[in-house]
């Protein structure tokens, strides 16, 4: 198995009114570990951010053979004006084949996002 470190970026994150920006999708045969997410507020006013994980992974073995559900990882977290928020640092979130990480902002074009992952193939 090969481990590959990758970075994914979005400039001008979409508004979170149903049109979240996709920052990462795990490809076929890929398991990834989220290493960190940096979100930069480029505006002179505070901005809210929401991050979600869409996961339909199922068919596990043993007693936990239940399909995953979509979850919110951050919900309307406020980022102060002209600052950067670092989240998931020190935590590890496993993303499996077809799982999707999305991000949405309260106001369009005010936030940039950078996601670091390690893909295992």
Please tell me about this protein's structure:
By secondary structure, the protein is an all-beta fold. It has a single domain (3-120), classed as Jelly Rolls (Sandwich). 0% of the residues lie in helices and 53% in strands. The protein is built from no helices and nine strands. Strands 1, 3, 6, 7 and 9 form a five-stranded antiparallel beta sheet that branches. Strands 2-8-4-5 form a four-stranded antiparallel beta sheet, with no helix packed on it.
Topology, element by element:
Layout (H helix, E strand, L loop, with lengths): L2 E8 L10 E5 L5 E11 L5 E8 L16 E9 L4 E4 L5 E3 L4 E6 L5 E10 L1
Antiparallel strand pairs: 1-9, 2-8, 3-6, 3-7, 3-9, 4-5, 4-8
Rounded Rg: 15 Å
Order of helices and strands: EEEEEEEEE
Class inferred from helices and paired strands? mainly beta
The CATH architecture term is Sandwich
Tally of separate helices: 0
Q: What's the rounded overall pLDDT mean?
A: 91
Summed up:
With 121 residues, this protein is mainly beta. The protein has no helices and nine strands. It has a single domain (3-120), classed as Jelly Rolls.
């Amino acid at each position: 198995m090969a481990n590959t470190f990758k970075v994914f970026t979005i400039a001008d994150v979409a508004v979170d009114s149903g049109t979240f920006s996709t920052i990462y999708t795990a490809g076929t045969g890929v398991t990834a570990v989220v290493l960190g997410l940096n979100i930069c507020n480029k505006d002179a006013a505070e901005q809210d951010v929401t991050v979600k994980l869409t996961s339909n992974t199922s068919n596990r073995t043993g007693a936990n053979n239940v399909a995953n559900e979509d979850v919110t990882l951050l919900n309307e977290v406020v980022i102060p004006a002209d600052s950067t928020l670092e989240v998931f640092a020190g935590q590890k979130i496993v993303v499996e084949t077809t799982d999707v990480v999305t991000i949405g902002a309260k106001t369009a074009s005010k936030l940039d996002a950078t996601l670091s992952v390690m893909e295992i193939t």
